[in-house]
């Protein structure tokens, strides 16, 4: 069954890369669950936090019921956890789709897993629970700790699924100029440019002359975009409880985002 894919202005990969990577995750989780039924410590801690709260268990069950594409791909919560095991134990890869040699980056693999889950009414309630956000934050922080290690640099290669492959360089340099000329390079002669970890690569500095900051006019404050991202839309004079679209069909407001903080 084809997944109901929303690209969110390019924040997730194209259909081909999305489906191929998702299928790889599902197959990998099936293999892992048969060979190694226990979970990694970060995922085990996440599981314990969820199962300790009957409300979160019920909401997760409802998520699987409300996302009809999921049961054929991820049959249950335990399989979902095995997919998390695969993600938090590996650095992101540059995805190569074998059919036609198609390539595209998978920069945030966990988002692909949560994409379908988040677009359900049960997930709307789940993601607003403090206990769930605390558990998810711990999981993400543990993954973040791993991405600081030397082992996380193993995808910083020129192999087909590496971030310095020819295909990856083509995408990373598109509209930005040559990689070595645009970014702060630690070792121009090394394949990984001297970045020892995934985090070092992901948070690489930009040479000042490649992105000059234009000073604002006097008395006119300006908020600069801190990363390479896409603007969905902009509005003026937004009120505290004005509703706007976010995450599929869910309504949000400034009050929701800031949790009522004035």
Automatic annotation (TrEMBL):
- What InterPro entries is this protein classified in? PsiD-like (IPR022237)
Taxonomic superkingdom: Eukaryota
Q: Which residues form the L-tryptophan decarboxylase PsiD-like domain?
A: 41-170
One matching Pfam family is: PSDC
Name of the protein this chain belongs to: Phosphatidylserine decarboxylase
Native organism: Rhizoctonia solani
């Amino acid at each position: 069954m084809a997944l109901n894919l929303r690209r969110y202005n390019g924040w997730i990969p194209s259909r081909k890369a999305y489906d191929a990577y998702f299928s790889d995750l599902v197959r990998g989780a099936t293999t892992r669950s048969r060979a190694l039924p226990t979970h990694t410590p970060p995922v085990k801690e996440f599981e314990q936090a969820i199962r300790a709260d009957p409300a979160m268990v019920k909401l997760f069950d409802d998520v699987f019921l409300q996302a009809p594409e999921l049961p054929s791909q991820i049959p249950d919560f335990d399989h979902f956890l095995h997919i998390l095991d695969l993600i938090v134990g590996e650095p992101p890869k540059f995805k190569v789709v074998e059919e036609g040699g198609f390539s595209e980056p998978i920069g945030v693999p966990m988002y692909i897993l949560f994409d379908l889950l988040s677009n359900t009414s049960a997930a709307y309630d789940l993601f607003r629970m403090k206990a769930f956000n605390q558990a998810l934050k711990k999981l993400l922080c543990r993954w973040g700790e791993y991405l600081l290690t030397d082992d996380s640099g193993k995808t910083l290669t020129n192999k087909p699924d590496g971030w310095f492959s020819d295909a990856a360089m083509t995408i990373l340099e598109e509209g930005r100029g040559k990689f070595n000329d645009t970014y702060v390079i630690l070792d121009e002669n090394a394949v990984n440019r001297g970045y020892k970890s995934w985090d070092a690569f992901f948070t690489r500095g930009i040479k000042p002359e490649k992105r000059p900051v234009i000073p604002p006019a006097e008395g006119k404050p300006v908020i600069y975009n801190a990363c390479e991202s896409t603007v969905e839309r902009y509005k003026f004079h937004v009120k505290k409880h004005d509703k706007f679209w976010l995450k599929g069909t869910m309504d949000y407001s400034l009050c929701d985002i800031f949790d009522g903080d004035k």
